[in-house]
Amino acid sequence: MFRNHTCGALRASDIGKEVTLSGWVQKLRDKGFVVWVDLRDRYGIVQLVFDEERTPAELLDKARHLGREFVLKVQGKVIERTSKNPNIPTGDIEVLVSELEILNKAMVPPFTIEDQTDGGEDLRMKYRYLDIRRNPVKNNLIFRHKVTMEVRNYLSEQGFIEVETPYLIKSTPEGARDFVVPSRMNEGQFYALPQSPQTFKQLLMVGGMDRYFQIVKCFRDEDLRADRQPEFTQIDCEMAFVTQEDILQAFEGLTRHLLKAIKNVDVPSFPRMTYDEAMSKYGNDKPDIRFGMEFGELNDVAQHKNFNVFNSAELVVGIAVPEAASYTRKEIDALIDWVKRPQVGAKGMVYVKCNEDGSYKSSVDKFYNQEDLAAWADVTGAKPGDLICVLSGDSHSTRTQLSALRMELAGRLGLRKADEFAPLWVIDFPLLEWDEESGKYHAMHHPFTSPKPGQLEMLDSDPAAVKANAYDLVLNGNEIGGGSIRIHDKATQEIMFRHLGFTPEEAKTQFGFLMDAFQYGAPPHGGIAFGLDRLVAILGGQETIRDFIAFPKNNSGRDVMIDAPAKLDDAQLAELHLKLDT
Amino acid sequence: MFRNHTCGALRASDIGKEVTLSGWVQKLRDKGFVVWVDLRDRYGIVQLVFDEERTPAELLDKARHLGREFVLKVQGKVIERTSKNPNIPTGDIEVLVSELEILNKAMVPPFTIEDQTDGGEDLRMKYRYLDIRRNPVKNNLIFRHKVTMEVRNYLSEQGFIEVETPYLIKSTPEGARDFVVPSRMNEGQFYALPQSPQTFKQLLMVGGMDRYFQIVKCFRDEDLRADRQPEFTQIDCEMAFVTQEDILQAFEGLTRHLLKAIKNVDVPSFPRMTYDEAMSKYGNDKPDIRFGMEFGELNDVAQHKNFNVFNSAELVVGIAVPEAASYTRKEIDALIDWVKRPQVGAKGMVYVKCNEDGSYKSSVDKFYNQEDLAAWADVTGAKPGDLICVLSGDSHSTRTQLSALRMELAGRLGLRKADEFAPLWVIDFPLLEWDEESGKYHAMHHPFTSPKPGQLEMLDSDPAAVKANAYDLVLNGNEIGGGSIRIHDKATQEIMFRHLGFTPEEAKTQFGFLMDAFQYGAPPHGGIAFGLDRLVAILGGQETIRDFIAFPKNNSGRDVMIDAPAKLDDAQLAELHLKLDT
Asked: Of A251 and A223, which is predicted with more confidence?
């Protein structure tokens, strides 16, 4: 037996007990006549004590020579501490050790196993097994487990069945790039790893499974941006015999449950906003609505006044930054430099200080009088003391730039509070989006998303205007889930594939099984998928997903701990009927 | 809204209600003046009625032209049935339809959607989405969900944390063959899909995570035997600061809980048996102990009697088949033919009929008298009315053959009862097993399994005799779980790798990260992994795993529904820096 208590369990009520504990040496303090050792496990820290008076000399000496992260098993008696530590749950007691066994020695770890470590990201990833000993990472993983248990139990109680779909499936060149798996038994052929179980969950609906979910790994071979992982986890869900409203209700229920169970936050009902409204009010299809600063479109009040920059712009749009009229010239110049950075890409920024006395001071006073600027304040909702920031140019870019500025300023002003949760449904997404690179329309969501009733015909005349039965769930400015009502008849699916540039043969080769299935009695159906990594990070009040993943990959898709990927034996390649083409 | 009740929900108490239902046409009976339609969904079947008296002519005509598996939405009134059907829960009522919408038509399905279908395995797999509509398959998937929920909730309550480990890891040529994944971003390099999360769960123990589990897909690129899948699901578990006894207790607890919660079966305590005992008593390391027929070794009483077949055999071993003395000559000959089949491989079989009058009649009466045969009966535990079957030859093959015969006869005699559950721990497995093909010792469990204390030294002198801290959980003659106490120090792990034929360089390249981790304070740890597919099938009282998997692959590793694996575009291959070598 290695322990009958954990290191976090002992209290004053245990005083007098003989206990056996196992754990790691967190810290050792040697005062000569007394040695204290902090012993740590997953559950906490307990203080061990050895002293000249009560501890045999040999044992005291052994304790003295312990090192950080040594693994110990000890027996001893729980005694009251003379100087108590109110900061830890075991702070009232210590364990007077009578037997000490070193279960394993440890080299000095490459970084400190403390909440605030001296290890940089690279070192922490290489020795992730040590990093996981640290409370912040350990607690994130435990938190993730709690969230997934809540998700599973909630959905299961709602009649959803978790069904495992296959990982070795078929590559479909449409969409993101697949990871592929050569088949040894089927020479020259490959499986693909799923980017999502999309078609399988639809087939489960055709199969009558009616309420499906799965917490499942998905794979995308994309060039990795910061905080993207080649393998990621989805809460994948699908329902049959439902309208969009049924789905929004069902998964608002799940999200509300999580907010309550995990964060003790009540959100009675989630607001909804169309995609068009989100774009015009926030320049963003996943607006953070924890704070205001809604866009005010100024074309009507700012054009035709001899200011050519505005007059030639498709869109003039501003936000009122609360209590920022007091920004110095230097601060405002820095803001202008910020929006002109290539990552944002604005050409410049016009500003208006709304003075406390009701007057205005702007960078374009030459062109606009006080009355003009008062109109701007009216449109942007600026109050005395606010700063109006105005950008102009083509509509799409300008909105995107102003959205970036809005988020940046909200961050600086402390308006993006980690403990505040503002969910939002964004609905009525466009069905298609124009892809500059390929010069084609792509499915904004995926090729299985249904157009709004009666809009199918517009695919020929005005494809960009067709709206989809598609929705995203946004939480604090992050898309945490997205889904749609699917196409469930072959004819519509064929039209959709045609508009996405598939030949009938390509559609049949890649998705023939799905269109076949639609001919055997497919029910109306739809669903949603949540990004679990992101959801857990946001619920945990953090920005990056990496520390909610036990063994993440770096931005080159490498696992630096195990050093993967790696070269294969020639024999392995030969068995797979492959040659390198390097 | 598509429905306010499901098709299985309505009862006599609902009579008079206006309801909306959606589902599939299971069956249509047209009696001219009345048409009945059985409407089916996941939850059951409800009878719809249309008749000349109460249904508008147009609607009656529409109902008459419905086809099997059409998808309908209906509105109507719940009425009492004149002739009730006690066989289905909704049998007291029917729904008099007032509105009928065909949500989707259906072609005639390629096989009947009935509990007993006319579809063969191949057809069912190609149209698996239709197969899933059938109760047996649908109920298996729901059953699987229930089992996994029980597993997760039980383990979570016991303090286990589910941690997701990566799917894109590193190939290790040791053991079974890996599926590999070429890396586009790391030219000429490959990931491998995990055969199990073994090293990661050990690293979690090094990381202090102490009680881990994961229900996780694993992958093995083996030539597929019947009822093997290239991707399969494990309940993967690991604990730190534990002895073997702690682990057996913990997972006996899980299994006991499942038997109780899922099958309402109480098994107070699981028997244990050493590997050596299992082999000598049952010729099998996963004995089915729902019935007796234990092996009786007859060397002492059957050799040195002029019967050369036995005299020259390493082992003479028999079983007493209950109440089989009445087998006819023809039946016994058929049994002898059965053991001589190449799949079993015995050279012949000696038998003794234990007559009800206490006399014996054997196929070797020439060599053995009644007293000799009485001794055989004594050793095998045969009673009057039993048949003793005796095989001989080299020990290993003979035991294997007799084990096959024992299982076959138990099946014929109805002793392998699907509703009876006999779990068994088999412990003290050998550490190594000799592999004829490679002429080397392999790890019987895996290279991370620890030898019994004090036996490490025997690796040089008598490797085959070294026992491991390894154990299997056997249920009804199937290995449902297996595990071990792991090595947790670098020196022992190095010795183990050396004995398995790794050079120090190979060990370092492949498992350097693990041996590094062992130097930073690895705790004693061990674990177990359950084969979920098999476990669920056995709990479900069935022999094959395939119908507990939503979308299984066939014996060539193909998904015949989606037609995977498949060829890749040349462009995809080029991006992966690969050429086919065919």
From this structure: A251
Best mutation site among A42, A131, A520, A553 for testing chain B: the one with the most B CBs within 10 Å?
A: A520
Q: Which residue on chain A is closest to B210 by alpha carbon?
A: A42
Tally of CA atoms within 13 A in the half-sphere of A92 that contains its CB: 9
Q: Does B558 touch chain A (CB under 8 A)?
A: yes
Neighbours of A314 (CB within 10 A): 12
pLDDT in tens, A539-572: 999 988 999 999 999 989 999 999 999 999 888 8
- Domains of chain A, each with CATH number or no CATH: 12-104 (2.40.50.140), 139-168+195-272+423-548 (3.30.930.10), 291-412 (3.30.1360.30)
pLDDT at A451: 96
List the one residue out of B17, B108, B32 whose CA is nearest residue B63.
B32
Torsion angle in degrees (nearest 10) through CA of B120, B126, B129, B133? 0
Q: In this structure, is the dihedral angle defined by the CA atoms of residues A198, A204, A205 and A211, taken in order, positive or negative? A: negative
Q: For residue A518, give Cα distances in angstroms to A198, A206, A289, B543, B551.
A: 15, 7, 40, 32, 17
How confident is the model at residue A118, as a pLDDT?
86
Tell me if the bond preceding B524 is cis, omega within 30° of 0: no
Helix (H, G, I), strand (E, B) or coil at A251: helix
Cα–Cα dist A183/B556, whole Å? 10
Give me A30's structure tokens: 């040697």
Distance CA A167, CA A387 (A): 53
Alpha helices in B161-211 (DSSP H): 198-206
Read off the pLDDT band of A311 (50, 70, 90): very high
| Rounded average pLDDT over A87-113 | 97
Report the share of chain B in percent with pLDDT over 90. Answer: 91
Which token pair is A215?
């917490």
Question: Confidence class of residue A50 from pLDDT cuts 50, 70 and 90?
Answer: very high
Q: Using CA atoms, how far apart are residues B223 and B209, in angstroms rounded to an integer? A: 36
Q: Are the CB atoms for B221 and A568 separated by under 8 Å?
A: no
> Mind giving me the DSSP string for B308-376?
HHHHT-SEEEEEEETT-TT--HHHHHHHHHHHHSTTT--S--EEEEE-TTS-EEETTTTT--HHHHHHH
Residue A347 carries which side chain, given as an amino acid letter?
Answer: K
The Cα of B506 is separated from the nearest Cα of chain A by a number of Å equal to 12
* Distance in Å, alpha carbon of B323 to nearest chain A alpha carbon: 45
pLDDT of residue B174: 65
Question: Number of A:B CB contacts under 8 A?
Answer: 363
Please report how many Cα atoms fall inside a 13 Å half-sphere around the Cα of residue B321, on the Cβ side.
Answer: 25
Cβ of B152 and A156 within 8 Å? no
Question: What does DSSP assign to residue A12?
Answer: G
pTM of the shown model: 0.96
The predicted structure's pLDDT at residue B440: 86
pLDDT tens-digit series, residues B546-580: 999 999 999 899 999 999 999 998 888 999 999 99
Q: Is the model's pLDDT at B162 over the cut of 70?
A: yes
Cβ-based contacts of A557 with chain B (< 8 Å):
168, 183, 185-186
> Rounded to a whole number, what is the distance in Å from the CA of A40 to chain B's nearest CA?
9
Collapsing DSSP states into helix, strand and coil, what is residue A396? helix
CA distance A160 to chain B (A): 9
Chain B touched by A1 (CB under 8 Å): yes
Contact B495, B463 (CB under 8 A): no
Q: CA–CA distance from B40 to each of A238, B7, B23, B49, B488 (Å)?
A: 19, 6, 5, 14, 56
Maximal CA-CA distance, chain A: 93
Decide if B580 contacts A188 (C-beta within 8 A).
Answer: yes
For every residue of A177-201, DSSP letters joined together read PPPEEE-SSSTT-EEE--S-SHHHH
The residue type of B68 is R
